[in-house]
Every structure is written in C-alpha cells, then in structure tokens.
Amino acid sequence: MMERSYQIESVAEMTVPGNKARDLVELYRVSLEHRIEQGDWNLVCRDEELFKEVEGLLRGGCAQDTHSLGLDPLSVMEDSLQTAQGVRLKGLARAFEVLELAALNLYLCPWRKEYRVVKMFSGMFTHYIKPALSMQQVADLFGLLGYQASEARLCEELRLRSPGLPVDTLLRLSCAFFAARCECRLLLSAIGPQARGVEWELNLVQERQKGHSLQIALDNSKIRLETLPQEEDFLKLSTIEADLDLYTADEFNGHKEVGTNKHRNPQAKGKSK
Predict the structure, then answer these.
(1) Quick one: DSSP state of residue 11?
(2) Domain with 27 in it: what CATH number?
(3) Which end of the chain is less crowded, N or C, counting CB atoms within 10 A of the terminal residue's CB?
(4) Is residue 59 in a domain?
C-alpha cells in the first residue's frame, strides 16, 4: 500500500514561492495516492477540496507564485485566446486536463508502450488539443513531457524520447497542468454567468500576468471593457435579416445582387417567370 503523508494540512501554510510550489505538489501527490487507494483510477484530479485550496491561493495573490512549477499557463492562455479561432477558457481547461492525464500516465506507468506515442489524429487530441493550441504550443507543451514530433510522421505522431523524465518531474508537471485548470476555472467563475465575449477572458488573463490579485484584475477589466456589449446583446445587434442568404439572386430576395452562382441551371431563368 502506498505511504500517505498529511504533514501539509492546508495551502494556507505555504510561505515563499519555492515552498508554495513544493507544498502544492505534495498536496497533489497525497490526493492522487488517496484516490488510487480508494480504487479510483480516474487519474485526472477532481478533488473538490484541493480545487478550492488552490483557487484560494490563486485568488488572493500573484498567480505566478503558484504557477512556478515549470509551466507558464497564463502565457499559454494569452497566446491561444489571441490566435486560436473560437477558443475560450473552457476549451483551454480541457486541453490542460488532457496534458495532466498524459503526464500522470507517464508518472504512474512509464513502462507501458502505448504511452510512448501520442496519435495526433486520435479522438482526444482532435477534440480537445487541436481546437485550443497551436502546433507550436503542442510541440512546446508535450515537449515538457519528453515528446517530440516523429520524423517519419511529422504531423501525425509525437514520440517519447529516451530516457524518460524523472518521476518527480512528471509529478510536478501533472500538478502544473492541474493548477492551470484551476486558473481557468477561477477566471470563468469571476466573469460569471453573463455571456461575455473572448475580450473579457483575454483582458482578465493579461491583468493576471501583471501580478494582480483576482479582484484587482477583475476591477481593471471592468473599467476597460464594461462598455462592450455582452455576447447575447452582440448577437442581437449583429443578426442578419432572416430572408437573406449568400446564394440567392436579388430577383428572389429584393436586394441588390452581390454575386452570381456560376453553377446555376441556365434553364432556370425561363422557368421562374
């Protein structure tokens, strides 16, 4: 049976950033081993108490103090929100969850051959990684775990380099991806149930990068962006007329024709009289 340690009772006991990082990893390890002992092999952390502990730590201070685990998730979020079409914090949280699972698989079962190759056309990769991360981000983030693009199948596979990473490094990175998920969840809860646009998420991330607490970051974002319409209002303002489309000539919809359909049946004109 795995040895359990409860010497660290709360994240509140953490002091300087280096100790915070080590103590957070220890809390994460204890939670993981406790779940495995209970027969729960759903490895990705869903420990609600640990979520609340980490979110409490992130809420009140500089996020970078907590994210000092070998990953800069706020930079990843900023790049994705700026460049990936349609990506939001919820999608990024799912991508971080997949990365956490990949790290835990290597941490717990480094000998398993199936974990040595990540298929970039697999369902999980296609649905959760590709929509949220650029190919450069994929290379960088999976590279942290020891993967690199296969020379033979450059855009299809990521292969694990040999030798593998030390287990303590893999555990630390698993925890780093978990903390990134906590950050996403915290920012989403701060934005609230209002259907705000991606500008809110991006600005909040950028304010957090400046070292602001969650409340200050939110206040600054409100000052800058509260005049923007909420997403529901924006959809109402930008809704096009229902009887228009891109493919019908003006003789049918009463508006000036902006293009012609070169595949239109030449006999249709006579039949439409």
Answers:
(1) G
(2) 1.20.58.2190
(3) C
(4) yes
Helix (H) or strand (E) run with residue 148 in it: strand 147-149
Residues of the chain with pLDDT > 90: what percent? Answer: 57
- Tell me the sheet residues that pair with 149: 158
204's CB contacts (< 8 A; 6+ apart) are 187, 190, 191, 217, 218, 221
pTM metric for this prediction: 0.76
Name residue, tokens 């950033």.
Answer: 17
User: Order of strands across the sheet with 157-160?
Assistant: 117-119, 157-160, 147-149
Short-list 96, 99, 72, CA closest to 185: 96
Residue 180 inside a domain? The answer is: yes
Cβ(83)–Cβ(121) under 8 Å?
no
What pLDDT digit, counting tens, does each position of 187-230 carry?
999 988 665 788 889 999 999 999 999 999 999 988 888 765 55
The tokens describing 98, both together, are 């997949």
SS3 118: strand
> For residue 143, is it within any domain?
yes
Domain that holds residue 69: 14-192
Spell out the alpha helix ranges (H) of the chain: 17-37, 48-60, 63-66, 73-83, 89-108, 123-124, 135-144, 167-191, 198-209, 214-225, 231-238, 250-253, 268-271
Q: Which residues is 16 bridged to in the sheet?
A: none
Is residue 217 situated within a structural domain?
no
